Structures are given as C-alpha cells and as structure tokens.
Amino acid sequence: MKVCARISVIVLVGITLNACKREQRRFRETPPSATASNAIVMSTLQPGPSVVETGVRNPYEDNAYAVAEGKRLFDQMNCSGCHSHGGGGIGPPLTDDEWIYGSDPENIFSTIVEGRPNGMPSFRGKIPNYQVWELVAYVRALGGLQGKAVRTTRDDHMMFKESEQARDKGHPSPTFVPPTSVKQ
Amino acid sequence: MMATRCRVQLGTAARFTLPVFALTMSACSGFQSALDPKGPRAAEVARLHWTLTAIATAVYIIVIGALVYALWRASTREPFIDEHQYHENPDQAGVMKRGVIIGVTATAIILGVFLVLSVSTGSAVATVRGDKPLRIDVVGHQWWWEVNYDDPIPQNQVKTANEIHVPVGRSVLLKMRSSDVIHSFWAPNLSGKKDLIPGHETVTWFRADTAGVYRGQCAEFCGYQHAKMAFYIVAEPRVDFEHWLDQQRGPAPKATDSLTQTGERVFLSGACAMCHTIGGTGAGGNIGPDLTHLASRRTIAAGTLPMTTGNLAGWILDPQSIKPGTKMPPTQLDPQSLQALLAYLGSLK
After folding, report:
1. Is B23 inside a domain boundary?
2. Is B181's CB within 8 Å of A76's CB?
3. Which of B147, B240, B284, B347 makes the best surface tag, with the fewest CB within 10 Å?
4. Is residue B3 part of a domain?
C-alpha cells in the first residue's frame, strides 16, 4: 500500500513537472544556427552512402509561449500577405497535410531561412534564429503537427476569436465551402 | 540597566522608522507624484485628496479621543453592579442614546459631503478646458508607447515614442488605443489614470501649467515588462514646442560621412529594418518604435535607460538582459558594424 502511494505521488509530480515545458518562457536562447540548415536534406535519395542525421531540433516544440510568439511574428513579418493566416493565397496553405518541402521542424526552418522557388523569399539575416524557430513552432501548430497540449494554445494578447489551432483542421479545396465545424 | 535597554530599543525603532517615514514623505514632491500637481486636472484630484485626508484625520482624532476619555472615566468610576441598576438610571441611558444619535448623524453627513466632493471633482475633471486642444494619438504596445501628432496635412504628421512634448498652458486631448492588452496611461503630476483598451478608443486630457519633464507610467499590469513601460511628458513654452514639432516633421538627417553611411547600410540590410521606421530611408517597419529622430529623445526602451551610446549598444546587442521578455530580439553584430550603426543612430537628431 505504501509503495503504491509513493509511486502514485512520483507519477503525479512527474506529470505536473512535464506540464512546465509547455508554459516555459525562455528569453535568452541560442538555438541551432542558420548554417546548420545547410545540412538539411529533402529526400533520402542520394548518390553515395546513406543520409546522415542532421541533429537539428527545434527547442520550441510543444511550447505554448513560443507558438504564441510565432503567431505574433507570422502577422508582423507579413507571412499572412501570401499564406493568408494559414489558409493559403499567393503561397500554399499551411493548415493542410501537404508539405511541398517537408513538414519536419528543420525543413520548415530551412524554407524560411533559405527561401523556396516561385516566391518564398529568404529571411536569412532578417529574422533572428530563435524567432525563426518560434515561427516554425507556430507553422507546425497550424498544420496540427504540434502536441495536443499546444494545439489549443492561447495568445499573450487579447483574443477576439478562437485561436486557429483550437479549431478543427481545415481542408482547402478548389470549390470553397465555408467551414461549419468552427467551434464558437 | 533598564533605562539603557529602553534607550537602545528607542534608537533601533528610530533607525527603522525614520528612513521609512522619509521615504513616504519623499513621495509628496517630485516628478512622478499625484501630490505635486502641475495642471488643473491633477490639482482637482490633489485638492480632493487633501480635503478627504483632513476630514478623516479629524474624525480619527475625535473617535480616539472619545475612546480614551471613556476608558479614563470608566477607571475612575464605581462599576455597575447589575443590569437592573442601569435601567433604573434614566439619565445615563439618555446620555448614551444622544451619543449614538449624534454619532450616526455626523457619519451620514460626513459621507454625504464626501459623495458631493468626489462627484463634483469627477465632473470638473471630465471635461476638457479651453478650446482647440492639441490632439495627440497614443497607442499602447507591450511595452512602449507610440505617440502620434495628428495633422490634416499628412506630411506634417509626427510619429515618436515614449516622449510626449506639449506646449505649456494648452489643453491636450489624448485619443488612446492599444495594440495588444489593456494598458493604462498615468502621469500623476498632470492627470489621473485612463485605460487603453484593445478594440476601443478611450479619451483623456490634461494641461501642464508649469514647464518641466514629468514621468508617467503604465498603471495596468500588462505582462512581463509592465514596470519598464514608462514615458515622459515634456511641457515646454509654445515657441520651443513649435520648434520641436518642426524638427520632428522632417525626415531623418542624411548620412554624410562614411561611418554613418556604413551604419545606415547595416540598419537597412539587417533585421532592424524589419520592425523599425526611419523616415527618408527604405526602412518602414511598424512593429517597433519609429526611430526617425531617435537621438533627440531622452531615454531608450520606454524610459528604462538614459539615451547614451553605451546604453544603446547594450540594448541592441542583448535587450533580453535589460528587459527580459521584450519583443526586441538580440542582434549579432561584429564590432565594426556595431560602431557604424551606433554612429548612424546617434546622428538621428
């Protein structure tokens, strides 16, 4: 009985501590640099021996504050100008399952830093690396790739509508149907 | 022995009490104090404050005096033996009844006076005095103040940050908005608090009757750096104000020597231009404060640091150590680029 109680206390504390990561606000971060993104590959097909792991990881995965900051930057850096709050416009939508250049954090990082053909500009040197990683965290949340705890994140500022991560996943199609499943 | 200990204790008490008392009193004058009014709005509020304090002090002294008198009298008298004796003494009962009636009536009258005083102060403070007030738009951001001087001619509009210049003796009408959370505008020497609410415009006004620099502060908790969200109101004679406004209307001074030209290039090609505007250049970001006439301001980072080259360098390289959580990211620059950038920013008078 005593052992059982001890174990459950340890488990409870463990669960509680685990939640800390979601709310952590780290203001002085030195995440993987932009040069690391040069080693990121898009395909496993290549001449010579097999692909080596790049070892680049987003420090902000599953962090609600980083996702909220990413959302702020997404608007402020005018990503919405082409991606239209994730729904797509001039640029491809980000809320669906299709990822032209990969959906892994390092792929999205490399897309933002290097730019992509047909319009995606390179933000190298324009946005500090840690803010690019915050954007990556948010873009992945848009696509529903973040953990469930971060999916329903709230902004740091006042919300006039429900956050898009909290809504059901959208499916952009040529014949546009207004979403009916938006929770109010 | 006893006397010595007593003296020691008194000494200790005085050592602790005096500084605290001095600190409290130091709040009565100064450049961020509601008790040192420099305009009609703050003067009304200060008058109300002193009136209420005077009445409340008088009431306190009377009540404590009555209590001391009652205790003293009770100790000099024969105690009541039983309730029966009390009822048989109609004189005593009458005195007590009269005391209660006087007390309740006085309380009701004093509270009524307080109500009339505060409502009349409220209405005196609410309306703008004088015609043709100067109109200034204020936008609250986490954690700085955007200040816009409206003008029907677009090129005469002025945008600055964390410093509100006003002419002495002219009423100023502030139209206030917020870009993120609720903030509150509070310059104690000139006006009371008014909230800045997202999606809703609020209006307040003030008038500075004495020239001077008055510190103001966000008065509604707005996040990590709420404490470092200050601003300065610079009240100056009309001529000086017009001169300042004229100078602010122009574009940024051109970079003339090679060092400032390099600095301009660093600013425009790096991350700075993504968020900041410098009038007359390609930088047009509207996320951070407008830097067109940065060097003419007294402080950086919303009143956090005085405007010096060293502080500016520290702020650019590592703002998170000065103001943790600020939206300004650290910028990595090599020494040459940093020096050039500092020279350029310093030239933006």
Report:
1. no
2. no
3. B284
4. no
Average pLDDT of the residues in B253-276: 92
Compare CB distances from B325 to A25, A72, A160 and report the shortest one's residue.
A25
C-alpha span between A64 and B314 (Å, rounded) = 29
- Tens of pLDDT, residue by residue over A73-103, are 998 999 988 988 787 888 998 888 888 988 8
What domains are there in chain A, each with its CATH number? 58-170 (1.10.760.10)
DSSP state, residue B12? H
Supply the CATH number for residue B183's domain. 2.60.40.420
Burial class, A42, CB count within 10 angstroms (exposed 0-12 / middle 13-18 / buried 19+): exposed
B68 lies in the same domain as B110: yes
Contacts of B327 in chain A (CB under 8 A): 72
Q: Using an 8 Å CB-CB cutoff, list chain B residues near A130.
A: 329
Confidence of residue A156 (pLDDT cuts 50, 70, 90): low
In this structure, what token pair is assigned to residue B348? 């933006």
Which residue is closest to A69 within chain B, CA to CA?
Answer: B327
Whole-complex ipTM: 0.76
Stated pTM of the model:
0.80
Q: Which stretches of chain B sit within 8 Å of chain A by CB?
A: 142, 179-182, 198-199, 223-224, 269-271, 274-275, 287, 318, 320-321, 324-325, 327, 329-332
- Whether B218 and B287 map to the same domain: the answer is no
User: Can you give the residue range of the structural domain that contains B63?
Assistant: 37-80+88-127
Q: Residue B214 carries which side chain, given as an amino acid letter?
A: Y
CB burial class (10 A; 0-12, 13-18, 19+) of residue B345? buried
In terms of domains, do B277 and B191 share one?
no
Name the CA radius of gyration of chain A, rounded. Answer: 19
pLDDT single digits (tens) B166-191: 999 999 999 999 998 999 999 999 98
Domain count, chain B: 3
Residue range A124-153: average pLDDT? 84
